[in-house]
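Per reviewer request, we include the raw input and output of the structure prediction for the construct analysed in the revised manuscript.
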Amino acid sequence: MEKISNRLNRWFIWVGGASILTMIGIACANMVMRPLGTPIKGAYELVGFTGALTVAFALGYAQITRAHISVDVLASRYSKRTLRVMNSISTLMNTIFFILVAWQVSTFATTIWKRGETSETLRIIYHPFIYAVSLCCLLLAFVLFIDLLKSLSPDKEEK
């Protein structure tokens, strides 16, 4: 399972990287074009969509590499066993939370799809972007589930 997760997250981080490059390109082009009197129509929308994709596609990779912020003022004082139990509980709660987030975001995307909603300026159908965010939350839940399984297995030192 961990190999599948790592491979998927490597692909997803590449999509997130391409998305941030696209976002930078749009923003820079708009900054150059604005003083010339011809700003890019819908630049704000496009930067918003690509920004959402950039963040969403990086979620799982950030969890794998522990690139997010962690505060362990109290945890540094726990015994290894207590720390393992606390990490397991926290990881289980986070896994459940992101499964629920993926479900609700997907439900929201389906509602938008059924209504036929589009973005204001460019009239882009944007439910695929929302489905992508939902998929990324589900992948994060998968990574967290793998972390949960790892935290439940005792360390060599504890045996």
